[in-house]
Amino acid sequence: MAFDIQKIRADFPILSRKVNGYPLVYLDNAATSQKPQAVIDSIVYYYSNYNANIHRGVHSLSQEATDAYEMARKTIQEHFGIKNAHETIFTSGTTHGINIVASGFTNLLKKGDEIIVSAMEHHSNIVPWQMLCERSGTILKVIPMNENGTLQFSAYEKLLSEKTKLVFVNHVSNALGTINPIEEIIAKAHEKGAAVLIDGAQACSHLKPDLQKLDADFYVTSAHKMYGPTGIGLLFMKEKWGNILPPYQGGGEMIKEVTFEKTTYACLPHKFEAGTPNIAGGIAFGAAIDYLNTINFNEIETYETELLAYATQSLLEIDGLKIYGTGPSKTSVISFNLEGIHPYDIGTIVDKLGIAVRTGHHCAQPIMEYYKIPGTVRASFSFYNTKEEVDLLVKAVKKAQLMLG
Amino acid sequence: MTIKAIQDELIDEFSMFDDWMQRYEYMIDLGKSLPIIDENLKTDDLIIKGCQSKVWLNATLENEKVIFTADSDAIITKGIIAILIRAFSNQKPADILSANTDFIDTIGLKEHLSPTRANGLVSMIKQLKIYAIAYQTQLKK
Ligand SMILES: Cc1ncc(COP(=O)(O)O)c(C=O)c1O
Fold first, then answer.
1. Which of A144, A230, A245, B128 lies at a 20 to 30 A Cα distance from A316?
2. d(Cα A390, Cα A397) in Å, to the nearest integer?
3. Mutate which: B18, B22, B23, B24, vs A, most A CBs within 10 A
4. Higher pLDDT, B125 or A194
């Protein structure tokens, strides 16, 4: 299918609204993406036609809902190239997935063991591990960063040792857009016998990872960043780990048999899916993936790469504008500052002009610490954004510079 | 001048502008007239941390009136602080306590005082009042 931008924009009803009197220019896709009509419809249709609790009832509605939910799991499994449906675990999002794994390792680690994080992580992929360290006496090591926002791979290799038990790195940095060399990171960790978790929150709207080929032990992501609803996400976990890690939460759905003497746990994936799940969310997550595949990820990558190049070039024409994250391999995210101007001020002015960007530390304070800045302005692009919108951003930033400089 | 009179004066000044850009430019200009807190006082004790911009606020009591000095690392935040301080500084603690900030709404800058706006201003207003309470207690003794 040829990439028809006007047709694609028409799929997203919110894109036609106005903000502060101007047509909305939505450039905060890394925080959350907008939803196509197909996703919105799947939620409305579920609640209007077959809402019921799943995996429990013998009645027809419950069966329909269960089928749709499990069908979505299948869609997700196939999209990510996951070998088994039971390795495809529904969570409430990336944060939840990371916490399931971090909590599960508590009794698998001992004092003096080491775990490795990168310098460019979201707080979600730092704090649960620090909590794990407090519980288990494990030591946290950090892969340092280069000025251009890429990881120092040789430093990573030096950090790895027989003591390393776990490595967790994001596929794509939310604050910089850097795509990390996760294939190599995983291979090196596996040589030392360490397990690897990849935080794919920022990757899956831009790329289509093949998890069987990738060979990560764990891969987590959130549906809301890939055009699906909030409150639902994926935790891929290799079967082996699914059997080793203890459940995270107890409750209904996750048991095989309960007596007051002893409870046995259900098999994967239900072992990690306690309680009534976000049924509509799961179904809509599947709908989002179906939608993305009608556009096709090759088309998405080509279009976004071109948009990124255009936006980078246009923004750099502004005097005193500095981009953070200039590595060779990036998704369509541009983090920047104007010399002598606080990012909060720029964000406030461009918002007045109908442009939504994110300002601040982007939940990645260590990166801001590295650059010694209070934060950045981040424009993150989707395939529904256009060059005209880039031009509007550039114009708005220039206006802000004039007013604030 | 009473707080109310100063607030009315500010409303008057802002009413001359008919679009947001002019209002913002004026606010940014007012920021330049802010009585700046002494650099030495810009410590963690006097910082009010918003999630994004920082605000420093200090108060002293002179002739039974509270004098505020402040600063921010963001220029728009600084503009709003200047407006607030113009209204609340050099006033009696009791008057500061009984005044409100509704005039900011009238001026058309309401969005900056939203509790969800991560700029530290809501906490700053709270802090202004806390200083006023402290000095009022001191004066009563
Ligand atoms: C790289 C990265 N990791 C984790 C998260 C957390 O995702 P969620 O809030 O959906 O759990 C985000 C969200 O901003 C992110 O960008």
1. A144
2. 11
3. B24
4. A194
Is the pLDDT score of A197 beyond 70? Answer: yes
Find the A399 Cα to ligand 1 centroid distance in Å.
31
Is the minimum distance from the CB of A331 to ligand 1 under 6 angstroms? no
Residues A41-56, mean pLDDT to the nearest whole number: 95
Contacts of B25 in chain A (CB under 8 A): 403
Report whether A250 contacts A274 (CB < 8 A): yes
Pocket of ligand 1 contains residue A125 by CB under 6 Å: yes
Query: Which amino acid is it at B108?
Result: G
Quote ipTM for the complex. Answer: 0.90
Q: Tell me the two tokens of residue A299.
A: 């088309």
Q: How far is B52 from chain A (nearest CA, A)?
A: 5
CB contacts, 8 Å: A403 with chain B: 21, 24-25, 28
> What is the domain partition of chain B in residue ranges?
3-140
pLDDT in tens, A123-161: 999 999 999 999 999 999 999 999 999 999 999 999 999
In CATH terms, the fold of domain B3-140 is Sufe protein. Chain: A (3.90.1010)
Q: For domain A5-30+297-400, which CATH number applies: 3.40.50.2000, 3.40.50.11540, 3.90.1150.10, 3.20.20.70?
A: 3.90.1150.10
B58 and B66 in contact (C-beta within 8 Å)?
no
* Tens of pLDDT, residues A63-113: 999 999 999 999 999 999 999 999 999 999 999 999 999 999 999 999 999
pLDDT, position A253? 82
Average pLDDT, chain A: 96
Helix-, strand-, coil-residue percentages of chain A, each rounded to 5: 45, 20, 35
CATH 3.90.1150.10 residue spans of chain A: 5-30+297-400
Nearest CA in chain A to B78: A345
Alpha-carbon span A117 to A21, nearest angstrom = 44
Domain A40-293 falls under CATH 3.55.10.10:
no
Q: Which of A348, A350, A402 has the most B C-beta neighbours within 10 Å, making it the best mutation to test the interface with B? A: A348
**Selected catalytic residue, list B16, B51, B140, B141:** B51
Given B25, B53, B74, which is nearest A403 (Cβ)?
A: B25
Cross-chain Cβ contact A352/B118 below 8 Å: no
pLDDT at B44 over 60: yes
Distance linking the first and last C-alpha atoms of chain B: 26
pLDDT for position B51: 65
